[in-house]
Design brief:
It is built from four helices and 43 strands. It has 652 residues and is mainly beta. It folds into two domains: 25-344, Tachylectin-2, Chain A, CATH 2.115.10; 360-648, Glycosyl hydrolase domain, family 43 (Tachylectin-2, Chain A, 5 Propeller), CATH 2.115.10.
Length: 652
């Protein structure tokens, strides 16, 4: 099914009669007001963001805050005089946010006078800790990093010490921009902090209210990487420590985020490169970030501030959220900043909850994306969608009574259709199944939109002796113009050439084994392939297959590739698919809510260049345990051109 290549994503507010609302989207900025230095965290079932109050205006600039603004202080900027309190924001979906006002105020920190900056928050010891900077401290002044505690995430927080936790200039690092990190490996709590181009690391006591020396006796360790300015952040993922920081001037357009990767929380931290920077089409001054993990999936988001293009004031900053993607080799892809309509909060999977196994998709002339799936003994109506996420049933029955009756002459079950273009004619290729030894593949022509009539029988297992002549995939080679049918399962995956009109075997055509072992050679089926799908990208042909038992969690999607349709397909290790090798890219365990992903129907490319795969999988909370709804998930690509999925599991 090679005719679908571009999925035109519609505006989020588009409505279709009878359809539910389209998927909610993150809107950047995620909430109103001028805020910066956001610390994102997940507490329970809610996402939280604790930012610096950067600027106040309009109704937000109350008489009390005006009084703060007009004070005479040691502040180097009158803007700092407004930064005397912290608000917090919480959300269940990263879309709808609730503001919690003044979770910490200067009046509850006797030594703080202005410039209350850059919170870092964490839950430990049965309480919520709120670390902050205050007073933009210089040598000999009172100020630095403080800590407050509360019983609830929304506070109110109270100063826990009555003085700064760190108030001195050590190793040239101004005591600001602290990040408290709980190391999952050692169980230790570390704090990374520092401005003025220097970064220190300290070890916190068990109660997080004092410092304790490292094993070598040091109280402070300087870990400053190349290019570091301020805003450190640490993330532990897949056995690696991702150390991130901000570079450039915070008031300028070139403020940005860079990172390093290490095997320990102590470094060394060798700069890899930038992951977030200005986009002249979207915003400037993007930096001072944090990272949160989706509550329901293995997706990560970067929470950061940026400045609108039309504004130059240093304090005019908004909080935004975008997707943070990791490549298969562990490096981080540059962040694509989104404008008003941002990254989807989550993929609303399944996109079709009824049984819709072995889906095939195509874009019709009316602008809709249509889908047909395995039907069993029924003649099931098509479903359709405009954006690929919200689907509706149609009144289109794909086969008329004459066609349907004739189909049943060759098999009682209708499996795994493939709808594709052969020349200028839209065709459907369908498996008709009686048994592993008695399965056939037929061709049908589209005679009116969504309606197909019987055209011919292509191949029958009872004649070829190939077990499970199922799961057709018809591809036209653009290099040669030749039309090929790929099919198979327990008898191996084969291909055979068709006539130019796709209605019969080409004269002299022979069946060629191209992938997978037979079930006799591999009874466990982990190297028996089915559900073959061919996809062409950047000079490569990718062969996606499904392996394992379709009825349980062993089912998974694997891949190999070749420069030509005629060439040998190899996995990422260079091993041939004909020997049952292939690279697994989507799998599950028997404990997962979403399990047994496989038999992908199509990869489509959106307007923004992202690619999405549609496939089926089991959902544990659907009663009968056999229903396989349709899923949609973004498929990513390494720098070497290999596909992978974030987290490697079906994404909710």
């Amino acid at each position: 099914m090679k005719n679908v290549r571009h999925l035109f994503l519609l505006l989020p507010l588009l409505c279709i009669g009878g359809l539910p609302e389209l998927q909610a989207q993150i809107q950047n900025p995620v909430f109103g007001g001028w805020y910066a230095d956001p610390e994102g965290i997940v507490y329970g079932h809610r996402y939280w963001v604790f930012p610096t109050t950067s600027w106040l205006e309009g109704d937000e600039l109350t008489d009390a805050y005006r009084a703060d603004w007009s004070r005479r202080t040691l502040s180097g900027s009158t803007d700092y005089n407004l930064q005397t309190h912290f608000d917090a924001f919480s959300s269940r979906d990263l879309v709808h946010w609730r503001r919690h006002r003044e979770v910490l105020h200067m009046r509850d920190v006797q030594w703080a006078q202005f410039a209350m900056w850059a919170p870092s928050v964490i839950h430990a010891n049965g309480k919520y800790y709120f670390f902050f900077g205050a007073n933009d401290v210089h040598e000999g002044e009172v100020g630095g990093i403080g800590v407050a505690t509360a019983r609830r995430p929304q506070g109110p927080y109270k100063d826990a010490l009555g003085h700064p936790l760190i108030g001195n200039i050590v190793n040239g690092a101004q005591p600001i921009d602290q990040y408290v990190f709980h190391d999952p490996v050692s169980g230790e709590y570390y704090m990374y902090y520092g401005g003025w181009g220097h970064c220190n690391m300290v070890r916190l006591s068990d109660d997080l209210l004092s410092l304790r020396p490292f094993d070598d006796g040091d109280m402070y360790k300087e870990i400053t990487p190349a290019g570091y300015v301020e805003g450190p952040f640490m993330l532990y993922k897949d056995g690696h420590y991702y150390f991130m920081w901000s570079e450039g001037g915070w008031t300028g357009p070139d403020y940005c985020v860079a990172y390093a990767i290490s095997d320990t929380p102590f470094g060394p931290f060798e700069r890899v490169g930038k992951i977030l920077q200005q986009d002249p089409a979207v915003a400037v001054g993007a930096g001072h970030h944090s990272v949160i993990k989706d509550r329901k999936t293995d997706d990560y988001y970067i929470v950061y501030h940026r400045r609108p293009l039309e504004l130059t004031g240093g304090s005019m900053r908004h909080v935004c959220i975008d997707t943070l993607r990791f490549r298969a080799d562990g490096t981080i892809e540059p962040v694509r900043m989104t404008a008003a309509a941002g990254t989807p909060a989550y993929v609303p999977n399944p996109v079709w909850r009824d049984n819709w196994s072995d889906p095939t998709l195509w874009r019709a002339d009316d602008g809709y994306l249509y889908s047909m799936a395995t039907m069993g003994g029924a003649n099931r109506n098509l479903i359709r969608s405009l954006d690929g996420t919200v689907w509706e049933a149609t009144d289109i029955v794909p086969f008329d009574s004459v066609t349907f009756s004739k189909m049943h002459q060759y098999g009682r079950l209708l499996w795994a259709p493939d709808v594709t273009m052969v020349g200028s004619q839209r065709m459907a290729y369908v498996t008709l199944y009686n048994s592993a030894e008695d399965a056939s593949i037929i061709a049908l022509r589209e005679t009116s939109p969504g309606h197909f009539t019987f055209a011919s029988v292509i191949t029958r297992g009872v004649e070829t002796g190939i077990a499970d002549t199922i799961d057709p995939e018809v591809v036209t080679d653009p290099r040669t113009g030749r039309v090929w049918l790929f099919f198979g399962s327990v008898g191996g995956v084969h291909r055979v050439e068709l006539t130019a009109d796709g209605l019969a075997l080409a004269p002299g055509a022979t069946y060629q084994h191209v992938a997978g072992l037979t079930v006799q050679e591999n009874p466990s089926r982990d190297r028996v392939f089915e559900g073959t799908y061919l996809y062409r990208r950047d000079g490569w042909w990718y062969m996606f297959v499904s392996a394992g038992n379709y009825a349980d969690a062993s089912y998974r999607i694997r891949v190999g590739r070749s420069r030509t349709l005629d060439g040998e397909f190899l996995d990422q290790e260079g091993r041939p698919l004909t020997e049952g090798h292939a690279t697994t890219i989507l799998s599950s365990s028997r404990h997962d809510r979403l399990f047994g992903p496989g038999h992908n129907g199509e990869i489509i490319t959106a307007d923004d260049g992202r690619t999405y795969m549609f496939y089926h999988c089991h959902v544990r909370d659907i009663a009968d345990g056999r229903t396989r709804p349709m899923m949609r998930q973004e498929i990513l690509w390494t720098s070497e051109g290999w596909p992978y999925f974030s987290g490697g599991k079906p994404a909710r």
